Amino acid sequence: SQQLDIDQIRAQYPILTRKIDGHDLIYLDNAATSQTPRCVVQTIEDMYYMHKANVHRGVHTISQEATDRVEATREKVRDYINAGSTQEVIFTRGTTEAINLVASTFGDMLYNGDEIIVTAMEHHSNIVPWQLIGRRKRVRLRVVPVSDRGECDLDAYEDLFTDSTRFVALAHVSNVLGTVNPVKEMIAIAHRHGVPVLIDGAQAMPHMRVDVKDLDCDFYAFSSHKMYGPTGVGVLYGKRHWLNTMAPYQGGGEMIGNVTFEHTTFADLPFKFEAGTPDYVDVAAFGAAIDYIKELGMENIAAHEHELLEEATRELLEIPGMRIFGTQSGKGAVISFLVGDISSYDMGLLLDKLGIAVRTGHHCAQPLMQRYGVQGMVRASFAVYNTLDEVHRFTAAVKRVAGMF
Ligand code: PMP
After folding, report:
1. 95 lines ligand 1 (CB under 6 A)
2. Of 39, 99, 150, 288, which one has the fewest beta carbons inside 10 Å?
3. Contact, 121 vs 176, CB < 8 A?
4. DSSP classification of residue 263
5. pLDDT per residue over 128-185, tens digit each?
6. What sequence ranges are listed for the domain Aminotransferase class V (predicted)?
7. Is the pLDDT of residue 2 over 70?
8. Residue 234 CA: which ligand 1 atom is closest?
């Protein structure tokens, strides 16, 4: 890439100097979790060594410093996703907890016979929480079909709306196919039917700019650990009027106004949904990760990843028996494939012997595997620190493994 000095970027990631079985590590499992640069880890260290005190409680200086850092990250997130207010930015443990929060609390407002629309390409974390509502009442999932190219059928989507549709939950970017769903259009369709929408942005936020106001989504969920940030932190963006309507998710400290044994009032947003001591060290460090992404420039990151994806796709397609799942042009930086009848597990194991870390199996999207009639897939996914040289070595390794069968 002309815009980014990849060598300089790589120097910020000590893990990239590791050898696996004598081979240079080539880390291509970024869609599962990205690596973490020094600036983020240094923020974690600084928090532990110099600013560790519980937040929102103490009058003392250190507690105030920790609180300021958490609230500074909240403002950074608000600004980065263009939310209207920090009241609409709730810290969670990750995308999964963010979705469970909405499914659980919005689910309280659903009745027998209500319907929720999801797509056939959802991650389990955007399927199972909605099914759990069904343990308490008869709420039914309606599923948007996915084409052979890996795209949602929008006509079929619109046809799924009935008088009983109460909610839509869909991925912005598929973690398997890389498909970028036309979420703005899909949200507009849902809103025409008076139905709110949650977007699972876990795979979008690391690779594209997201503007929640422009999308007009009602909820947007994502995870820090896929965005060069620390583990244990996620965000739920929610429109204030929905968050005010929904009951609290968990009870405990931080989320209350006044507590007696007879009656408890709840804190204002966003604290109403943040019971207990938050992961304030990692929240603070997530702020450093957002600064890092902004410094590199999301357009530059995306352009670099796109170049890697194009090259990898071109080279993989030269291998006999290669089958790539998800062929949308302009898709996200993931490439899922199978070669002949080599199992994803065997391919992954042999690539690992060559120092290459890829994902294998069902990718937490078993219904999508069923859709394509496969047990699993091999997935390579890119981040800003990957190089064209790594792509060449990866595709050569796939070719070599394919030749062994
Ligand atoms: N949705 C998608 C599309 C994902 O790729 C992931 C992460 N694999 C999740 C949700 C869940 O994210 P987390 O495990 O960070 O909660």
Report:
1. yes
2. 39
3. yes
4. -
5. 999 999 888 999 999 999 999 999 999 999 999 999 999 999 999 999 999 999 999 9
6. 26-394
7. no
8. 15
Q: Is the CB of 223 under 6 A from ligand 1?
A: yes
The pTM (predicted TM-score) of the whole model is 0.98
User: Taking the CB of residue 79, how many other CB atoms lie within 10 A of it?
Assistant: 13
- Catalytic residue ranges: 364
Tracing tokens 């399927």 back to the chain, one arrives at 127
Q: Which residue's C-alpha comes closest to atom 12 of ligand 1?
A: 95
CA–CA gap between residue 106 and residue 110 (Å, rounded): 7
> In 10 A of CB 186, how many CB atoms?
24
Helices (H), 246-334: 280-296, 298-316
Ligand 1 neighbourhood includes 331 CB (under 6 angstroms): no
CA–CA gap between residue 286 and residue 78 (Å, rounded) = 13
Neighbours of 149 (CB within 10 A): 13
Question: What is the position in ligand 1's atom list of the atom closest to the CA of 93?
Answer: 16
| Three-state DSSP state, 95 | helix
Q: Which two tokens stand for residue 165?
A: 């549709």
| End-to-end C-alpha distance for the chain, whole angstroms | 36
**Which of 95, 236, 360, 379 most suits a substitution to test ligand 1, by most atoms within 8 Å of the C-beta?**
95
Residue 352 token pair? 């690992």
Which of ligand 1's atoms lies nearest the C-alpha of 226? 15
Residue 137 and residue 131: Cα distance in Å, rounded?
Answer: 10
The answer to whether the CB of 175 is under 6 A from ligand 1 is yes
Distance in angstroms (rounded) separating the CA atoms of residues 383 and 245:
38
According to DSSP, the residues that pair with 168 across neighbouring strands are: 117, 197
Counting Cα atoms < 13 Å in the Cβ hemisphere of 350 gives 18
**pLDDT tens, position by position, 234-276:** 999 999 999 999 999 999 999 999 999 999 999 999 999 999 9
Residue 381 corresponds to which tokens in the numbers above? 């996914």
Q: Is the CB–ligand 1 distance for residue 28 below 6 Å?
A: no
Cα separation of 170 and 209, whole Å?
Answer: 18
119 lines ligand 1 (CB under 6 A): no
